[in-house]
């Protein structure tokens, strides 16, 4: 049980002592029952945001209009949200406005899936109005209420179903799946940034392949670039600790459409450059890396490219831990270690700067990395005179 959980219970206690009602809701209850790691513990209450602010000394307004106040009093931040129902839905997106309500069932009813719609009271009682516990035990993702209307209210829920399948290894209940299949095209109304967030969670999930399969079966894949149906098998061995690995693998599998994919899914600059570097290293790997590849790429880039080669069924001529060993044994680790620079070259040659400087530096670096010359100013000067002055 996480510290947050204990803190949330203390927050609930204070709210109740002030005469209101409060419970833990949503993902934390689900993860608690599954004995999974709990990220953030959300508290729901019948007190209004201003009433919460009167109970606690230290609060932050994050989304007062959505009913959320962050309470800092007990050590770690706990989000406290007033029971609410969502307002009217337009364009198949979540509404901007919400209505506060005084009873919990209304709040639980607006939640997406039965496993996410349970509440936990201070006394350890589970409030489960939609059979969430049973679905949890059977590994089932089921919409709360009529699946078709729930997905039309907010089309992102379709992708959330797939993401939870990937995280928990659950299957999507039949009528919920049918509803997604029917309305999968509505995903086009959802902001790319939100799609990005869901897929980022999916890449680091335990059962990514199940998620990709659900993406295909649900027809969502028809509206999401990446040719998931065609590449289904390529996702089978995939496992990642960081989302950027998933974004890079998606590019690797769809190289011709890489630029479109980067644009569609709104890759961050970091994700984009990671993808490009890994794919470059992957291509070089297939003709065997040289000292310069080991030098110029971060270890994570090299190791990811190696994983990609394995997942693509390529023959890899060495084990993964070999990579770090080779890299460590290089005569220099970074450019800062390099004993040569352009100024020295210009000084030694008595010539003006020009493109030749970069060319000579590259050549010298390669000579150092391959052990042809020591990384030492005197020896580099000698090497330079032999290579560049005497020969002309
Ligand atoms: P995790 O934090 O592990 O991604 P979570 O279940 O906590 O999973 P959040 O996005 O943090 O998911 O949302 C918290 C809770 O709010 C959910 O458990 C669910 O009850 C509700 N919720 C979130 N998004 C939606 C949505 N689009 N439609 C309906 N309910 C939602
Ligand atoms: Mg959460």
Please give a structural write-up.
- The protein folds into four domains: 1-130, 2-Layer Sandwich (Beta Polymerase, domain 2); 139-224, Hydrophobic Seed Protein (Orthogonal Bundle); 236-330, Methane Monooxygenase Hydroxylase, Chain G, domain 1; 335-389, Serum Albumin, Chain A, Domain 1 (Orthogonal Bundle), CATH 1.10.246.
- The longest helix is centred in the last third of the chain and has 18 residues, at 269-286.
- It is an alpha+beta fold and 392 residues long.
- It has helices at residues 3-17, 27-33, 49-55, 104-109, 132-138, 147-153, 156-168, 174-183, 192-203, 208-217, 243-253, 258-264, 269-286, 291-296, 299-311, 321-328, 342-349, 355-369, 377-389; strands at residues 22-25, 42-45, 59-63, 68-71, 78-82, 84-86, 98-100, 119-120, 126-127, 140-141, 171-172.
- It has 19 helices and eleven strands.
- Strands 3-4-5-2-1-8-9 form a seven-stranded mixed beta sheet.
- Helix 6 (147-153) packs across helix 8 and helix 9 packs across helix 11.
- A hairpin with a 6-residue loop joins strand 4 and strand 5 (78-82).
- The model has no long low-confidence stretch (mean pLDDT 95).
- Adenosine-5'-triphosphate (ATP) is lined by residues 26-27, 39, 42, 94, 111-112, 116-117, 154, 156-157.
- Magnesium ion binds next to loops.
- CTP binds at residues 27, 30, 111, 154, 157, 160, 163.
- Residues 239-383 form the CCA-adding enzyme C-terminal domain.
- It comes from Ureibacillus suwonensis.
């Amino acid at each position: 049980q996480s510290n947050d959980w204990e803190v949330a219970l203390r927050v609930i206690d204070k709210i109740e002592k002030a005469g209101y009602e409060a419970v833990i809701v949503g993902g934390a209850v689900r993860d608690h029952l599954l004995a999974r790691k709990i990220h953030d513990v959300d508290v729901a209450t019948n007190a209004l945001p201003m009433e919460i602010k009167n109970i606690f000394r230290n609060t932050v307004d994050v989304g007062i209009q959505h009913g959320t106040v962050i309470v800092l009093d007990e050590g770690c931040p706990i989000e406290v949200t007033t029971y609410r129902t969502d307002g009217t839905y337009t364009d198949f997106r979540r509404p901007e406005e919400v209505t506060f309500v005084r009873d919990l069932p209304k709040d639980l009813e607006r939640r997406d899936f039965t496993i996410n719609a349970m509440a936990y009271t201070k006394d350890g009682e589970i409030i489960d109005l939609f059979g969430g516990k049973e679905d949890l035990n059977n590994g089932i993702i089921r919409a709360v209420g009529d699946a078709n209307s729930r997905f039309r209210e907010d089309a992102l829920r379709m992708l959330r179903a797939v993401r939870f399948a990937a995280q928990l290894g659950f299957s999507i209940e039949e009528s919920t799946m049918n509803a997604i299949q029917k309305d999968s095209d509505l995903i086009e109304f959802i902001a790319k940034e939100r799609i990005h967030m869901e897929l980022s969670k999916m890449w680091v999930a335990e059962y990514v392949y199940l998620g990709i399969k659900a993406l295909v079966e649900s027809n969502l894949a028809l509206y999401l670039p990446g040719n998931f149906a065609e590449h289904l098998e390529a996702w089978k061995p995939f496992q990642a600790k960081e989302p950027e690995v998933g974004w890079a693998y998606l590019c690797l599998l769809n190289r011709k459409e890489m630029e479109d994919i980067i644009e569609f899914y709104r890759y961050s600059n970091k994700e984009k450059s990671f993808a490009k570097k890994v794919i470059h290293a992957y291509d070089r790997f297939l003709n065997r890396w040289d000292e310069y590849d080991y030098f110029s790429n971060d270890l994570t880039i090299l190791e990811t490219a190696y994983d990609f080669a394995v997942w693509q069924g390529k023959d890899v001529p060495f084990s993964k831990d070999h990579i770090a060993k080779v890299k460590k044994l290089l005569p220099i680790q970074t450019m800062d270690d390099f004993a040569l620079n352009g100024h020295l070259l210009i000084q030694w040659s008595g010539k003006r700067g020009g493109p030749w400087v970069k060319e000579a530096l590259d050549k010298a670096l390669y000579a150092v990395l391959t052990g042809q010359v020591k990384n030492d100013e005197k020896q580099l000067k000698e090497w330079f005179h032999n290579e560049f002055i005497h020969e002309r």
